[in-house]
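Supplementary Text 2. Reproducibility record for the structural model of the 213-residue chain.

All settings were left at their defaults, and a single model was retained for analysis rather than an ensemble. We include the record here because the model underlies the residue-level annotations in Supplementary Table 4.
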Amino acid sequence: MNGIHDMGGMQGLGEIGYRENEPGFHEAWEARLFAMVRALRTGSLRTGIESIPASDYLRMSYYERWYTAFVTRIIERGIVTGAEVDSGRADPVTVKDTPALTAEIAVDYLSITPKEEKDMKLTPRFRVGESVLGRNMNPTTHTRMPRYTRGKTGVVERDRGVFNLPDSEHSSGEPKPQHVYLVRFTGQELWGDDAPANDSVYIDMWEDYLEPA
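Retained model, structure tokens:
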């Protein structure tokens, strides 16, 4: 999806606000939201976040975007109603989950880290040291391919292994395992001759994002 979230290479957005030793959460509600997202296991919020209109996206904080996408998701799935979100109270006739989600259960969910790499043997399409070209693609759903790599040539530095293609999981819900490669793009290839000659950007790229150079 081409949207404001894909800011790499864009200009005029100001400096990145870096703070040394910045806390993971700035307010208590952010931590509660993070726990709710993990505990309710609603899946990735990326598509919802990327669908936020640009004017709203730019004024929102990081977790305000999470909240917007999360509320949309749980209403769509029938976990709550819009009226319940607005009132902050459960409708008395709403069917409750059994067993109830307790703080102890939520903590257990937070400790679960899914294994992303797939234990399967697939023939890699590209080799380390091979030149590859970023495909010129404009998907209408989520993708991990940065816009600024489309049509650009890089070199495969490493084969990361086999992982499901995020684009497929978000568009069709079907897994599409394939090799992921660490690809090096020179700064001048991405940004032109004015970029420093020694700069490079390293990006993890799924096979579907690449074609032979």
